[in-house]
Amino acid sequence: MTGLTRSSADLDERRRRILYRCWHRGIREMDLILGQFAEVEIAGFGEEELDALEEVMREEDQDLISWINGSRPVPERMDTPMFRRIAATRPRFDVVTMESLGAR
């Protein structure tokens, strides 16, 4: 299961490809971070924003997750408006609720 909730039918080829790649990163945390971000934002992105998102996506998952969760400082080259937007919308992985554990 990818977690994808939006249809990509209304997106052009580039946006569909980016959305797919955001949900298929390699580690689940990055799937959730980039996938959920892209689902909400990608339809409204212009070409420059798509370029900026693809620039972030070129980075290794382990690096991205460590910069996003604050365990390592963000390098100057990655301290971009797009990276900050992604980091600001990340899910809270540290929050455990009874519902997240499957309790009802």
Automatic annotation (TrEMBL):
Signal peptide: none annotated. One of its GO terms (biological process) is tricarboxylic acid cycle. Keywords: Chaperone. InterPro entries: SDH, SDH_sf. It comes from the Bacteria. The keyword Repeat does not apply. The keyword Chaperone applies. Belongs to the SdhE FAD assembly factor family. PANTHER family: PROTEIN EMI5 HOMOLOG, MITOCHONDRIAL, SUCCINATE DEHYDROGENASE ASSEMBLY FACTOR 2, MITOCHONDRIAL. This is FAD assembly factor SdhE.
